[in-house]
Amino acid sequence: MTAIDDALTALRDEQPGATLPGGPLRWGVADAALRFVGIGGPLGARWQQALTELSGCVRVVGGTGAAGTGAAGTGDAILVEGGAYPGAWVESTASISVEVLARFAPDVARATHLRVASHARDDGLLPYKVTDAGPAFTQIQMVTPLARTVWNTFLLGGGTDLDYLRTMYDALAAHDAWLARHRDTRGTGGVEAFCTFDTGHDASPRFWGVPDRCFTGEAARFDPAHPTLPFVAPDLTANVAAQRRYLGRMAAVLGEHGATWDDRAAASTSALLAQCLADDGRYYDRDARGELRRVVSDVILRVYEAEHGDDVEFAAALERDLLNTRRFLSVAGLTSLAMDDPRFSGDASRNSWGGPVNLLSAIRAAHAFEVHGRVAEHALVATATLTALATADRFPQCLDPFSGEAGYTEAYSPALLFFLDQLERSCGILPRPDGTLWFSGLTPTRLEHGAAADAVAASRRVGTSRFAIAGDDERVVVERDGQRLLEFPRGWRVEADATGTPVAVVGLAAAPVAGELATASGTTPLTLNPNDRVDLATGVRATPGFTAPVF
Fold it and tell me: What pLDDT does 62 receive?
């Protein structure tokens, strides 16, 4: 028996969701036949712990929706932030977190979106959070484009729930109109920040000297006595550009004119470039005096998460900032402020975006890298964060960037979902919104600090088929309904259609990997550099290149 055989045997003995309390998360995990085991090391136990703690973050919040809305989803269990945050925040819980959750608890993901929409104000403003006390509107607090997560949730659910899509489209369109009326006071076409919490950048030097909340607690107002407010914000502007692109996709499905949204998205992008792009290639806030506030923070990553920029620009950002160990690449992942900024503080004991590694930023990061085909760099960065969580005593919001030790709060759902998500991206089976599957083979056998496994295995149901994947330090095998489907070397990712038929192979490791893709029809020898992608039908090879850490 090999370690892979042991992992597959242990996987078959697992009952999906059996250890979870009754409720929608357990039902979703069981329906998806979601399982994970590790042979050696802490990963298997931590995976079970993450799911168990996540079940505590799925609950009914409050009793009713907004008066008179009659909105769907009211009263259903939704995802909450967890830890010190007893509610659903649009910047995180109701956007990036439910986008991950939709892969195995789609009912909870949709209910969370619909609950936010049900609380829209009459003027179109969406709440920035929903708690047991009701919706809150003192700031806009937007980061991950909500429209993107709605669109991907719709597609992951089969692309048939038009009632859900219509409800969310109408709410998002009204919110966009509110932003256009109230958050472009200078007529630049950009989106303005009125306070610190508009971007969720608590304790960041980006907003030193700026009020935490909007003036008089109203999101349409900023303090008129403040000398530098409002700021044309690059992350908010990029967010709206992305939201408009996705609203265009929704409009087309709903029989409306998507081209109008595309034009508006282009206008937002033009404003971002005109107002926020500096001569050093970075994006900064432009204040009311017309000056750029040159704070180098995770705003960089936020702009690219919104699908802005081309591959050349993103490659430059990787080398200059994101993979630079003097700036953002720490031993625990990407920091929230450049480490060479004299204002940097690695104190992870509080809610801070002034330096620590934030798990909310970590879960957002994958999309930015993947849009540009830089999956190997993302794997390198995310592995550091995965290692820290694998050996931590809790799932916190923040990690110490120098030691990787767990910091502020616990049972934090973005951290729980990052852990589950990264295991799927590195060594699991990940269903994509376009209907394809990723079988990833960067088996976590080389993690540091006692986090490594000898072998791991994971499974999930896709349609009527049950897929399993298992890997050790040399090879990876994939099964469909108990029969061997694929075999390939550690360090590759195989992209497949919904039936599991391979369509492409990608270099996921940070160094070249040579080997063979074995299927029932034969073997295909390949050598893949990091990020190389070979189309198996045509033989065409895409070569995005690779950026190694900069010292």
Answer: 87
* CA distances, 199 to each of 37, 312, 314, 377 (Å): 38, 27, 22, 26
Confidence of residue 75 (pLDDT cuts 50, 70, 90): confident
Q: What is the pLDDT of residues 350-397, one digit of tens each?
A: 999 999 999 999 999 999 999 999 999 999 999 999 999 999 999 999
Q: Is the dihedral of CA 145, 146, 151, 153 positive or negative?
A: positive
User: Torsions phi, psi of 133, nearest 5?
Assistant: -80, -5
- Structural domain contains residue 457: yes
In a domain, 413, yes or no: no
The CB density around residue 222, as the number of other CB atoms within 10 Å, is 24
Percent of the chain at pLDDT exceeding 90: 97
Instruction: Dump pLDDT digits (tens) for 140-153.
Output: 999 999 999 999 99
Distance of CA 64 to the CA centre of its chain: 29
Q: Is the pLDDT of residue 432 over 60?
A: yes
In a domain, 334, yes or no: no
Whether 446 has a pLDDT exceeding 60, the answer reads yes
- On whether residue 288 sits in a domain, the answer given is no
Tokens of 355: 């330096």
**pLDDT for 66 beyond 50:** no
User: What separation in angstroms does the CA of 527 have from each of 268, 321, 531?
Assistant: 42, 29, 12
Name the burial class of residue 539, with classes exposed (0-12), middle (13-18) and buried (19+) by CB atoms within 10 angstroms of its CB. exposed
Task: Round the CA-based radius of gyration of the chain to a whole number and report it.
Answer: 22
Measured CA to CA, the distance from residue 89 to residue 79 in angstroms comes to 9
Q: Are 249 and 259 in contact (CB under 8 A)?
A: no
> Could you give the number of structural domains in the chain?
1
Question: In this structure, are residues 114 and 120 in contact, taking their beta carbons and an 8 Å threshold?
Answer: no
**Quick one: how far is CA 531 from the chain centroid?**
20
Q: Which of 487, 478, 494 is nearest to 432 (CA)?
A: 494
277-314 pLDDT, tens digit each: 999 999 999 999 999 999 999 999 999 999 999 999 99
Other beta carbons within 10 angstroms of residue 211's beta carbon come to 16
Cα separation, 491 vs 529, in Å, equals 10
Query: Is 4 exposed, middle or buried, given 0-12, 13-18 or 19+ CB atoms closer than 10 A?
Result: buried
> Which tokens is 539 given?
């033989």
Structural domain harbouring 505: 3-11+438-542
Give the mean model confidence (pLDDT) for residues 82-100. 97
Q: What CA–CA distance (Å, rounded) separates 524 from 515?
A: 8
